[in-house]
Amino acid sequence: MTDRLGDCKDKCTLMIALLEAAGISDCDLALVTPKSDAGIAYLPSPRFSHVVVHRLLPDGTSRWYDATVRFPDPDQIPRTLAGVPALVARSGETDLSVIPTPGLCEHPRRMDSQVVLSANGDASVSRRSSYSSISATSSMRTHLMSVSQQDIEDEVLTGLAVSCPGAELVSLEVSGIDEPDSLLVYDYLFEAPSLLAPTGGIISGSLPTGSQLTKVFGAIVAKKERSSPVDLHALGMCETSRTSVEYPPGFGIVAVPEDREYRFDDCLYSTRYETSGYSLRIERETVIAGDRVEPERYVEFKAFLDGILQDMRTPMLFQKR
Asked: How far is it, in rounded angstroms, from Cα 201 to Cα 49?
């Protein structure tokens, strides 16, 4: 307390003392090894590397808390602890307990975009990205509280540079930075010059997706074969997006792309297209879930990701009528 420093054991011990002072009992330390396999029945000690807090509720169910997580949500379990065996340091406790695995899509990342196209291929894009999983928001909030507004704007522009070269950020607002029980939300507007290419009354090209998956494509699919497994725990994500594209005056879409759906075990990707008047609506869902992809199945998993990448790059053609 004097040094205001402590590791997981110290923070959990302090948390239990504070809970007891507040009249909340039945809390104990629990030994765990983050990211370990619940199917391997070994005692966490001497291999354990982390300590969390376990609370036994009156109805006999358990709650788990990681005191080292900054900006925690008491209703969420960090992804690194989901499905992990734990040894509760309670008198008479001899069996391992497995920390439950919540549904990956209970706390998805959501993105809503409005794209307004002009006849010369330029676009104005307003976008809202919201995050609710503490596996993402804890580190994001910590980072956001340590940087300036200009730094945040530069980071957003860097993220746009790949899909929208030359993008100009018009406005940016981030809300929920210091509110751990709320969504962390990015609201921004940017201009994308020459997003689509104009040719003889037709503008065509791919629309920016903003998917987090695009950040890891290169690292995963760069090789034709792998000698080591792909860690799906590290990649785990669930994101949904809705994009509304407003055509330029006097234009119409040449052909509506086909809906797509790809699957690999518990992983899923789907796209739905719908037209209404002078606008196109695109809905996507991406779920990367599971334990690992063994080398012998890498080619199959790579084909799944290649299909996603190809769909995200589907060209759109709009023709003047």
From this structure: 63
